[in-house]
Amino acid sequence: MNKNKFQSGSAHLIIIVILSLALIGSLGFLYYQNFVQKDDISKTDDVKTTPTPTQTTPIVDPTTVVNDFLTSFLNYMAMPTTDSHNETSFASQSPVLTDTYKDSIVNPSGMVYSSPIILAQALPLGFSVGTATTTSTSSSVPVVLSYNTPFSVVYNLVLVGNEWKIDGVTKI
């Protein structure tokens, strides 16, 4: 009977030793993979790394810029008005307008419309954005504003850094 107890204890000891060795081996492998090998790779990468060119392609296309701008403008203007709730305050806060265009909205000169943003007296029922005509630094996006009689305008955009910005609007 003593012999069976000894054999049973030895089997447990062997299993514990094997599991301990497997655990130590796994931890050693993970350490090597995450620290030692990574250092070796980064040293060789430093030698071979070439600088990546800066991104010059705009993230958002001009048609989307105009569509999103008009959507937010019409939603803003549909809210109840207060003294500080007007097109001038909307334009001054918009990140998609150039400073020159913002200034022309705040300080209009020449032909003055009720809305210098849509060149109309009343807000349209909706709008339809056409296909942009784009060069490397500018873009023109036609828009049809929905009234009883459709009204067409063109939003002129310029590339500022990596973003298209609205620089003006003209009546067609």
Describe this structure in words.
There is one protein chain. By secondary structure, the chain is an alpha+beta fold. The protein has 2 domains: 50 residues; 110 residues, Nuclear Transport Factor 2, Chain: A, CATH 3.10.450.50. It is 46% helix and 20% strand. It contains 4 helices and 5 strands, in the order ααααβββββ. About 4% of the residues have low confidence.
List the helices and strands and how they pair.
Elements: H1 2-48, H2 62-78, H3 87-93, H4 99-106, E1 126-129, E2 133-134, E3 138-146, E4 151-160, E5 163-171
Antiparallel strand pairs: 1-3, 2-3, 3-4, 4-5
Short description:
The protein is of the alpha+beta class.
Key traits:
alpha+beta; 20% strand; Nuclear Transport Factor 2, Chain: A; elongated; 5 strands; 172 residues
Estimate the global geometry from the Cα principal axes.
elongated
How many alpha or pi helices? 4
Please give the share of residues in helix. Answer: 40-55%
β-sheet strand percentage: 15-25%
Helix-strand topology string: HHHHEEEEE
Q: What's the number of domains?
A: 2
What is the CATH topology assignment of the largest domain? Nuclear Transport Factor 2, Chain: A
CATH architecture of the largest domain: Roll
State the name of the first-level CATH class of the largest domain.
Alpha Beta
On the 0-100 scale, what is the average pLDDT? 82
The total count of strands amounts to: 5
Largest sheet features: 5 strands, antiparallel
SS-derived structural category: alpha+beta
Question: What is Rg?
Answer: 33 Å
Alpha-carbon distance between the termini? Answer: 105 Å
- Low-pLDDT sequence parts: 49-55
